């Protein structure tokens, strides 16, 4: 007897803690509720090593700082998911924290996604821009369909 497995579609959401990413996450959860999809909230973290750190304890300091940066990203992601959709949304949100540039992490994640969702901009410095640099790169290089969610959008937009 051959068993038939149903694979739920996967929606990947880029999250950075900004209001735009919270709106994107809310939109993705609403979409998942309508389509039966899974939701993965992905946050990237980067840590720059100090090229001038030398001495016997430099490696230990590097490791400790990297662990601290990753843990801070995990906490920020958990807080952002809770703020955006509550602690027990109707659709489970799987949280992923990955090291790397945000654009590259999200483009890589798009390869496994049926739908990629990002806010129109994050914490970047140029407030007048229609699209942030990460969102722009995700749209340009993503392996599949990308939905851009602007801050203030509702689920029906």
UniProtKB/TrEMBL annotation:
Residues 11-150 form the UspA domain. CDD domains: USP_At3g01520-like (cd23659). Coiled coil: none annotated. Belongs to the universal stress protein A family. It comes from Streptomyces spororaveus. Transmembrane segments: none annotated. InterPro entries: Rossmann-like_a/b/a_fold, Universal_stress_UspA, UspA. It comes from the Bacteria. This is Universal stress protein. It holds the Pfam family Usp.
